[in-house]
Amino acid sequence: MQDPFLQKKQNILKEISQNSDDNLDASPKGTIDEHCIPIINLINTHPKMVTTSSCSGRVSVYLEGVQNNKIISKGNEGKWIFVTHDTSNLDNWYQNINFKYDITKFPTSENLRSILYKFEALILHVKCKDISTANKLYQIAMNCGFRESGIGSNYNVAIRISIKLDIPIGFMDESQYNEDGEESYNCFVSKEYLKYITKVSFDRFKENLKKLNQLHEAIDKFIKEDNDGNDEFIERIESVNIKEGWESKEERRARMIKEGLERKEKMRRTKLEEAIRNDDGNIQSLV
Amino acid sequence: MQDPFLQKKQNILKEISQNSDDNLDASPKGTIDEHCIPIINLINTHPKMVTTSSCSGRVSVYLEGVQNNKIISKGNEGKWIFVTHDTSNLDNWYQNINFKYDITKFPTSENLRSILYKFEALILHVKCKDISTANKLYQIAMNCGFRESGIGSNYNVAIRISIKLDIPIGFMDESQYNEDGEESYNCFVSKEYLKYITKVSFDRFKENLKKLNQLHEAIDKFIKEDNDGNDEFIERIESVNIKEGWESKEERRARMIKEGLERKEKMRRTKLEEAIRNDDGNIQSLV
Q1: Which residues of A touch B (CB under 8 A)?
Q2: Is residue B261 part of a domain?
Q3: Which domain holds residue A199?
Q4: Is residue A135 domain-resident?
Q5: Selected residue of A59, A108, A160, A165 to mutate for chain B interface (largest B Cβ count, 10 A)
């Protein structure tokens, strides 16, 4: 009989990869973020963990929506004017937006929709099989500086960090179109200010990626330690390769065995070298 | 023998109120926020919960610090230029700061310390006696829209919501003083922009307070339901009155009994009124 958690895990992963193929993800991008794939694949090698959602961090420019004549940040008519999960297309992003710059023109009515420039950091949701696994993952995240992490219901761990920007930059009138019939936006900060916060966002991306790598390493270390000398663990790994080119179950098994052997070999060498140092210098080379 | 959780709870509360008296709190203000006192007192009536830290929400203007020649957001030399937990002294806050406005002057070196304008929402940490209480509190918070809440180690629940602003507004040179020998700051947004984000902050405060009240009501409802018909519960309440004028253990006991009787009375009336509506109109008044 199959482990119910593993069965649930397989269903979740199947759904994620289907959604990813069909672009059905709720996010504006609709696919799993490139930067998240390594950590997702890593976490999913652990038999008691499964990733349920992720965002690697992003810059977005968001036009608030309207619902029942009330301005709200989500829902009807809310719109992403610009989104990027990477720095590669971040430079000069504002050149492609229909901004009308006027640093003296601020909204005069509450019915005008705000435009916000946001940096949002990595967020990762991981469903765990039991409270002990959830607690371990939570502790790892906290130790890596993801201080806004927490365990939710059913051992769902949310991994969050406070690297952010949340900046009002403009607004839109109800029916504001430019000559070509396209939407245009009032921008009450200067182009130089947009340039500056874009530069700051590069730093935020850098910091965010550094933390993502730190988290990756810490989880990797935990999984290896949890696994050490436990061959059954490897047997139970259900590797799901979201993207072509990632190692299969068999490849991962082979790599882990190889790495285990390498670690043992390294330990042997370290001990030998220590022995050499403590010796009178007669032994020259043993390896 | 006393319940170990209750003992811990009493120690924590004693420490909080001492710190509050002695201004030893780690926050710049050093005392418990006025707006948090009702919800803190409410939560602490529950025998399986104790509040460990809180911030009712605030606007702050923060000058980044320096450590090992590296700019960091916390630690050495980091400084709050302005903090308020209330809207009463928010208007025109920037008039009292030594700002040198120049919307064309941005930092040219990475060694310049940034100045950030922030709105941070309510945050509440509650230590619970067991996982079941922690789960209940977590669910209440999530249902009220505190979507960034989570349970940490030892049944510590963090209640968080994503109402925020995080805006770079200026910077400071290493030794920048005005004529009077006081620090002065470069501000690369206009006074009109500061005025606008201050106005936005009023809305954020309003939204935040609305959510705080919603949370208060939901926790109140939960505590009453948890308590209903359980006289022992009332006996075990360890009410700690952080501020004079708040009800004592005995007063709360009396109030809860009174409210219980009132609820029963109200239910009786509702049933009667329903009976009247279903009747042919012969009964005019029963109460």
Answers
A1: 103-104, 106, 114, 131, 135, 138-139, 142, 148-153, 158, 160, 164-168, 188-190, 192-193, 196-197, 200
A2: no
A3: 4-215
A4: yes
A5: A165
| Mutant choice from B125, B165, B204 vs A, greatest count of A C-beta within 10 A | B165
Q: What is the value of ipTM here, to two decimals?
A: 0.77
Nearest by CB: B149 against A131, A150, A197: A150
Whether A164 and B164 lie within 8 Å, measured CB to CB = yes
A158, B159 Cβ separation under 8 angstroms: no
Q: What pLDDT score does A284 carry?
A: 34
Per-residue pLDDT tens digits for B32-50: 888 999 999 999 999 999 9
Task: Considering only the beta carbons, identify the residue of A103, A152, A196 that sits closest to B150.
Answer: A152
Q: Is B51 within the bounds of a domain?
A: yes
| Angle (CA) B246 B215 B264, round 5° | 70
pLDDT digits (tens, 9 = 90+) for B140-183: 999 999 999 999 999 999 999 999 999 999 998 766 665 666 77
- pTM for the structure as a whole: 0.77
- The closest of B196, B55, B214 to A167, measured between CA atoms, is B196
Residues of B contacting chain A (CB within 8 angstroms)? 103-104, 106, 114, 131, 135, 138-139, 142, 148-153, 158, 160, 164-168, 188-190, 192-193, 196-197, 200
- Of all residues in chain A, the percent with pLDDT exceeding 70 is 66
Nearest CB to A150: which of B152, B166, B190?
B152
The total number of structural domains in chain B stands at: 1
Pick A250 or A15 by higher pLDDT: A15
Our CA-based measurement puts residue B267 at a distance from the nearest CA of chain A, in whole angstroms, of 34
pLDDT at B9 over 50: yes
How does strand A150-151 pair with strand A156-160? antiparallel
Are A166 and B168 within 8 A, CB to CB?
A: no
Q: What is the pLDDT of residue A139?
A: 98
- CATH number of the domain where residue A58 is located: 3.30.1960.10
Give the pLDDT confidence of A168-222 residue by residue, as tens digits.
999 987 666 656 667 789 999 999 999 999 999 999 999 999 999 999 999 999 9
Please state the rounded mean pLDDT for residues B195-210. Answer: 96
In a domain, residue A185? The reply is yes
